[in-house]
Design goal:
Blueprint lengths: L13 H10 L5 H12 L9 H8 L3 H10 L4 H16 L15 H20 L3 H12 L2 E6 L4 H14 L3 E3 L2 H4 L18 E7 L5 H12 L3 E7 L5 H4 L2 E5 L11 H16 L6 H13 L4
Parallel strand pairs: 1-2, 1-3, 3-4, 4-5
């Protein structure tokens, strides 16, 4: 689909790719297989750990470390430092004094690993039947309601705005503010019939009591219901047509929202992809209107 307003340059890792390509002919079999995988997935290496990279290729973590040393990297930490530096330079940022980024402490390394694992989980789920069903329900409904409570209300409101660019007739539903007045209109008086609508419910631990009540009301009225939640949620499968579970435990003071936000970004993208033109006409109109009112 068309891109939004972002105009930053695409990160290029040509130097690393050239190093791998030059080293390939002289590498032992295991390292050559790993190098080939890295070459084909170079733009995704920042999301990997030594363990996940080894598992995907079917080699040992020792092999990963050995190849990275051949390439001049001090393990995965060195590789990621190289990629961060290349990203910073490509975006026009000035390198820090001494040319090196400060090293992360052990705790932050563990948190980073957990966050990366959460992203892997979400992107893997994006190929699942549950994800396809969730995106299909949201794309085909005549009207979509999005809601979230407590600490994820802001995320839910943001998702509603983004989803409204991808498809028509999307509303943020605040059960506290309107007491579900949006759902009072009977069929025959305009608006969408309940059975033609879908509720996107976003919630994380400690779950809002209203979430389960709202899902139950939606189902009682004949509405579809899909849920994006965290890994602890045990009730969503009983009330929803489709569920995505986003890992949230990464070792931070509060549960991380990285997984939830990424999942919702993929949902918006998936819904846009199911529109007749991939959402291109809507995003083009959105850009024009935003510029006409001089928002940017």
């Amino acid at each position: 689909m068309s891109e939004g307003f972002a105009s930053y340059p695409t990160v290029s890792f040509s130097e690393l790719a050239e190093k791998i390509d030059a080293a390939l002919p002289g590498l032992p079999t295991q390292e050559a297989r790993l190098a080939q995988f890295m070459l084909l997935n170079i733009d995704k290496l920042a999301l990997e750990t030594g363990r996940t990279l080894a598992a995907k290729v079917g080699v040992s973590e020792v092999t990963v470390g050995r190849l990275l040393r051949r390439l001049g990297c001090d393990g995965m930490r060195g590789l990621k430092a190289m990629m961060r530096e290349q990203y910073s330079l490509s975006a026009g940022a000035r390198p820090m004094a001494g040319g090196e980024a400060p090293a992360m402490n052990d705790r932050l390394e563990r948190v980073l690993g957990a966050e990366i694992d959460a992203l892997h989980s979400i992107f893997q789920q994006a190929g699942s039947n549950a994800f396809r069903e969730l995106a299909k329900r949201l794309a085909e409904a005549q009207g979509v309601y999005v809601t979230g409570f407590q600490s994820v209300r802001g995320i839910a409101e943001d998702c509603a705005r983004r989803l409204a660019i991808a498809r028509p007739n999307v509303r943020y539903l605040s059960a506290h503010d309107s007491m579900l007045a949006e759902w009072l209109l009977p069929s025959g008086e305009g608006g969408d019939r309940p059975e033609d609508t879908c509720l996107l419910l976003i919630d994380v631990v400690p779950y809002a009591r209203e979430s389960q009540d709202l899902a139950r009301i939606a189902r009682d009225q004949g509405r579809r219901c899909v849920v994006v939640t965290d890994e602890y949620c045990h009730w969503a499968k009983d009330v929803a047509d489709a569920v995505l579970h986003a890992p949230s435990r990464s070792g931070l003071f509060l549960e991380s929202t990285v997984g939830i936000v990424s999942a919702l970004n993929l949902v918006v993208d998936g819904v846009a992809g199911l529109q007749d033109d991939g959402g291109r006409q809507r995003i083009d109109q959105w850009k024009l209107m935003a510029r006409d009112v001089r928002l940017f």
